[in-house]
TrEMBL record:
Pfam families: P_proprotein, Peptidase_S8, S8_pro-domain. Residues 465-606 form the P/Homo B domain. The keyword Disulfide bond applies. The active site is at D176 (charge relay system), H216 (charge relay system), S389 (charge relay system). Residues 1730-1745, 1885-1900 have a biased composition (Acidic residues). Belongs to the peptidase S8 family. Furin subfamily. Keywords: Cleavage on pair of basic residues, Disulfide bond, Glycoprotein, Hydrolase, Membrane, Protease, Serine protease, Signal, Transmembrane, Transmembrane helix, Zymogen. This is SPC3. Gene3D superfamilies: Galactose-binding domain-like (2.60.120.260), Hormone Receptor, Insulin-like Growth Factor Receptor 1, Chain A, domain 2 (2.10.220.10), Peptidase S8, pro-domain (3.30.70.850), Peptidase S8/S53 domain (3.40.50.200).
Amino acid sequence: MAGLCAAWVATLLHLCHGRIFTNDWAIKVADRDDARRIAEKYGLTNMGQIGHLENYYSFRHNDTATRSAVANRILSERIAKETKVQWLEQQAVLKRAKRNSRASHIYSIDIKTKHTPATSLHASHPPALYFNDPQWNNLWYIHCSGDSGGCPCDMHIEEAWSRGYTGKGVVVSVLDDGVEREHPDLKSNYDPLASDDVNGKYRDSSLKEVGNADNHGTKCAGIVAAAANNSQCTVGVSFQASIGGVRMLDGDVTDIVEAQSLGLRPEHVDIYLAVWGPEDDGATLEGPGPLASLALKSGALTGRQGKGSVFVWASGNGGRRSDHCSCDGYANSIYTISISSTGQGGGRPDYLEECSSTLATAYGGGEGDGSMITLVGSRGCIRDHSGTSASSSMAAGVIALALEANPMLTWRDVQHIIVKTSQAAHLSAPDWHTNGAGYKVSHLYGFGLLDAESMVKEAEGWREVSPHHVCEEEGPVHLNRPIGPGSVVRSVVKSRGCSASPLKHVAYVEHVVVRVTITHSRRGDLSISLTSPSGTVSRLLSNRPLDVSMEGFRSWEFMTTHCWGEESAGEWTLALHDVPTAPRADMGNLGMVKEWSLVLHGTSEPPYSMRHEKARSADMSTGGGGGDDLTDEYSGPCDPECSDDGCEGPGPTQCVTCLRFFLKFKNSTRSCVSSCPTGFWGDRRRCKRCFPACRSCTGSRSNQCVTCQPGYHLSEETQMCTTSCGDGYYLDHDANTCRKCSENCLKCTSSSICTECKPGTSLQGNRCQTSCGLGFYLDNQDNTCRPCHKACATCAGGGAEACDQCAQGFLMEEWRCVSSCTAGFYAVGGGGPEETAKKTCRRCDASCVTCAGPGGESCTSCSSGHSLREGACLLSTVCGDGEYQHDRGPCQLCDQTCLKCTGPGSQECISCASSRVLDEGGCVEACPPGRYGSGGRCHLCDHTCATCVDAGAANCSSCDTDKFRMERYLHEGRCVETCPDSFYHTDTKTCQPCSHHCRLCGGPGRCLACNSSYYLSDGACVKQECGEGEVEDPDYDDCMACEEGCKKCVLYNPRHCLSCTEGFYNFQDGCYKYCPAKTYSVEEDMTCVPCDQSCVSCDEHQCYWCETDLFLSEGTCVTACADGAYADDDTHVCEECHPDCLTCAGPEDSDCLSCAAGKRLAEGRCAADQVVCPSKTFQSDNGDCKECHPVCESCSGKEKNQCKTCVKGRFLTAQQTCVTKCPAGSFEDATHGARCQACAQGCVQCEDAQRCVRCQPARKAAVAPPPPPWLLQDGTCVHQCDRGYPVGQVCHSCAEGCVSCGNSTHCLSCLQPLLLHQHQCVSACPATYAAAGGRCERCSAACRHCSPSRQCTDCEEYHFLHGGQCVPECPERWYEDAAQRACLSCHPTCLFCDGPGSNDCDTCSDPDTALHNGACLSGCPGHSYRDALTGECEECDASCLTCIGPHPGSCVSCRDRQRPDEHGRCRPLANRCSPHQYSDRDGQCLPCHKYCHQCSGPGPDHCSSCHKKHLLLNGTCMDECPAGYYEDDRGHKCDACHPVCLSCTGKHSHECVRCQAHLFRHGKDCVETCPASHYGDVGSRACERCAAACGECLGGGEGECVSCPPGLLYLRSQGRCRLSCPLDHHRDPLHLTCEPCHASCKTCTGKEAHTCDSCHDGYVFSEGACESPCGSGQYPVVQGSGHGCEDCHSSCLACRGPGQANCIKCPPLAILTAGGRCLPCCHLQGPEEAEEEEGEEGGEGEGEGEGASQMSVGFPRGPSQEQQQDCCNCSAESPGECILGTDFASVNEEEEEESGGSLAIFITSGVLLVLGLGGMALFVRHSRSKTAAQPDIVIPRGYEKLGSGGYGGGHSNSSAAFGGGGGSSSRFQESQLVDLGGKRPGGRDDDEDEDDEDDEDEDIVYMGQDGTVYRKFRYGHVGEENEDELEYDDESYAFR
């Protein structure tokens, strides 16, 4: 009956559970544009892409209810009809339950002790590793051992730590209700990138202010990654892992929410921890939705850069309800690692579910079986956290350790390692069995308890498993078999593992999935099992009595891991059981198995080979036969630090692998050590060097220090070592730690003593609090100011007891304000009303009930038994002293302590003997603390005093806290809230004076701030003394630098220089490297003298440039030019007028403004006076007036084309004709004298000058390339559409944001600041792209982010940034900085290093230096020697003072009173010699050399100490230290400078005076290269600052720039940076340079010929080009109204003016210079070499010599040609430019002196002619043999074509220049002309060899007439190593 009732209730609950729909839709569309369009069309809000699921978008419909029981089907159907929509689903609320523990007890961390209540567990078994975290001893699940009671086996987490693995570098994200990131145990590991707030209520995943959160995410995060050794609650399993939290369970959970959470930054997050799922109620069957399923699969296949995200899932806590985790589709997925749980004793917790998908188990605790400790809230600590949420958190931490051991593990590798290493151990389960692959497995615990140590060991050497294959085997088709109550249905599938399909073949199984469809009237009665071919039985489903669903299973997937490693081939048997758990209403309604299929996951080959990991010396067989010869193998004992892998010798450097840690040396050897030495830390068993400031550390980064080097302090917050504690921190001297000041404190001296407050607060005592006005106090609960009680004038809290001072009309009575004194008190204080607030109530004498004043004579009433007489209360009884009358009876004795009393008790005294005082009715020997004795009784001290000697605040004798709990300190009898300046607070609550001159200190010898004129040094104040170039800073008690160049400056104005350093000019109290503008320099006294006020640039003689609006005239500046000159507005110089003009506006004869006498001004010209003709006439040549043409109103002749103005109705054309209609390209302008005005450029039809209707059509041009066509845009003709694209001859607009485009959707460039990406304009480039030139360019390989120049700025994991590229390893002289992921420069002395400092070297760059403690020294320090093998300094034997080796017999010198014997050992001296003597071999004392004070021998180089004013160097006493050495601090000896110094003042690299020859001095350092904006001055060997206009430079002048700062343009030809380009240059926006215009342009917008803006005089501007009206070789000259043509200079092919400096085109043999000259290439030889070559050419063929001469000279020589001429250095790297050089002409001096008639010359010429003809014949013969295969090409021997000069057309028709075979058929083709390999068909004969020997001339470069460059070479040498070989670059016209 009870079962039926339970079933009925479950059915009712199920039927009542309906779906709740939200107003969110998930939609899959083709691309982003479709998503945007659909959102706009249907009124949806596009919420963005769902996680990392491409093409899946989240949409919100604001018109749909946020929660509704009815779906919006109408909207769904409308959207589904869209062709671009591939899938959609309205989101429904999912019910998800946290796998919470059952009960938790929360404790708060005590602020002072930081301890939670601890248990006694393991108190007698302290762990080997100890952390100071309060709960460390209670973490049984981390460091229990086999001999610990109740803990027979653990997970070996501590052992994994000992191997150096702590989770560092691994990122874990907890998907839950968020993580409290401010918790002190999580704060240091919190990773915001692994966190998100998917629920959307708050900005991050912090639990702060989330009222309904149960801190479940924080609890899990604490188990994973709580920080270690920070005195907080607990320690996480991976305590250095990065931890984050996703807040997704604090709102409606939908499929979108789950997918976004599971897909959070998969490239960053390594492990996702999920401890939730469908309800564990025993009835729910549910799995991930379509989006969450995709997110799981996508993460596993693509996350972690393709290695796969790791998803850790809790298997479930539904054991009490007989739930089965196979009905949880999350834990049942192959992509998740399902984790079970066990208690401390290994028993089965009652909450545990069993299923075949569980992979492994971790400790999770349970009731009475071990409690787990973790975090809660913002500072809390929790115990009894248990369940699979705890165990899966443990598992996530262990997996993080394995990923640190091997970050390359894939998601499948992790599962394989878990299967291989998990242990059944002590876990209690009835179903442990061994599968076919030999693994023990259970349905409760999977493959057993996780073993962290085994996992990291396995991971270290793991190789990736074989590829993943999937094989799906279908079951019997149309099975349809019924299942009756109590019956079993079996079905068999015979599998071959898809062996016929290689890509699907699964031979070895990993996961097995069974997909079934079953109908049944009561689903919970079914159980299902699967038997593998190896006989392993997996219970896929057990009975669930609470599952009364009639839905059955629809394609539900069950998964098992129990067959892992088994072979797949054989029979797989599925068995289904129907076992009724309760009576059914319809027993006849049988269940039906519709279909099932088998899906095998695994590999086609063994996933890994079994590796035997035995010691190398352990398996050595001593028997013979067949094996390798092992007789040389070492078989002795190994060092204790060697692992089980054995060794190759007995020492720690001969281990195969190390047991614990190893140190690696520069020669790649390593030594095994038990622990890493000081300054090192253990990383995966390797000892790595800490950051230089760290003394001990947990990693190499600067924020991983544990303790610090001397001079540094550890920051408690950042774990960094710093030289001083910053604002908000104080130095704890005892711990040498910078600790955080209390809240609101800006500066403090301890945690409770503030000295300066943050804004908004003020110092109140030692605390910083919000300031409240008089009559108000600060309420700390809500931090608001509240009014005091009405009795208080000022107060520290609410109520009358909290008053500091009383309000007017109130009195202070025992520290409360009363309106009048109560009985037993009397008022004392001021008499007037204004003094009322100062009145207090004092206690009456003990004999009085009331009184009017002090003493026993001021009583006003008495107690019973007393009578008042004259103000005194007297006993009215007969009893004497020591007695009292009881009820009017006889007198009774008082207590022995009382003199008088009212009763027998010790507290009933009313007066005391003189030795005692009365206190609260008792007579005491002394008043208690807080009271003082006066008048025979105790009175309260002032509330500020702990003890006192009298009344008032000024009589305190000790202090503690006052009544307001404010700490007080004793100072001069007062208890003050804070000690005054120059005093510090002590632990005994006193103020003690600081040391001398100290203004602020934290203790004795711990000064923090000094008085004026003193500075802080090691906690003490030292007198301030500033050096050269410095001045005292009166505000900060420090030295501040004077202005650059100042040698001495004024105290309060460091810019006011009194004198300058060498090389600087003095001007107006300042020092300048170069004299400023409007001054000139006087070198004699290094001063700057100002120019005249109107002059900008001058020297001592004249002005060279004037101020604006002034003009330069004969060296002076004038406002207006004199007659005969005009002001040139461009140059601001007065230039001469044309001779015809008296005054003028320009240089031409048409620029006259006035004329001389006898001439008149006509149209700007000065002409002789003439007769003026009437209208419509003109003056003929003979002076007569003749009629114009009838259409002319005025004219210059009788023809119709000589009109000046037209008659009415006609318009004047540009051809001086009058027409009735203006021609094409012009319009009728009646406003300017009836003229035909030209339309704008490019327009053929216009309405006016601004409105064009039609543009010029494109026409074929005679020149190449053709000019661009004209396009009409907004009434203007343009060559290129602005923000548009052409359609025909009209511009259409681009899309919004586009500047140029190919069509409306194909953007080519974007409007700033938008960027072009895939033809779209975006606001920012996506990841792995960088903005460059307005585009998104892909970064290079392994680059995560890059700069606009595509230089990498951030690299992927395992790569480091070096030179703008990402490299897997850093090169020499660079080290890998893991924090910055960059290669950082080693110190110049290091070849290899692990840090930037001079003491971080692993290997030295100078092989002669010695390595000592990471520093490269010129020699080893005392008591050490240089090891010749390693180059390192090793310690001498303890008996030696100096030595040459490590042994006792290697001593060179000994300590006092010892000497080395003949074996090099130090022996004590037999007798004692005086300090000025030494002992010889016989022990006799002999005098030292006179130079020595003490010595070891007789010579001057045997000194061990020197006399005063002498210095010891290598045993010799010297007057002063030589170069490379410095005098030590005590002035006793010379020590070596740092290797980078040539001379120095100390041993450090920043103490150099002069640097080594190859280094430059920058500040106090010696550097190899100067920093940005500096250059290395080779003269001074110092880094000097570039000119202000330069970004980078080669020198200090303004013309030596090589790059410019932002905002300036680089003019390469002048080496200058300018704000704008000069007229004949244009701005290159890409490179930000000024580039020269084409030679034909005067001004331009680009470098091409058709980009001109204006032309030189005489040239015609046409379609952007400047065309000359003259023929080739001529230039136009303006002559009157027309022009003429004149010849160019002979060196030019084309020019723009006269002379050789106006060329615009050069002959083929010349290069155009920037100055407009055509110059030839220089010879490669100097004059002497040229003469030698002439001699050598005498042996060559005549034709060759002649040709060479012609080609190398380039221009015909005159008879008087000089020996030198300007030429272009063609071998310089000068792209597109001519670098001027000097050419030595090849002119024979004898030829100049005597040209003929000499018999000797005649004979010599004849011999040379014969030899030349012979050489030519050989040459022709060789050429024919070389060209046999190509009969059409005659290839001359000995020349190689290097490239084209690019000067124009065609190939050369001249063969003489190449000395080939001689005929006209010799010509050059575009292919290679010479066989460079030297291979010849048929071999080589002797003649050819001789010919090669004769060809001894050097390589020479020639240029053909077509501009092609050739190299003549020595045949047989091409292809060999030839450092002088030249190569020509076609692109840049430069040799390189």
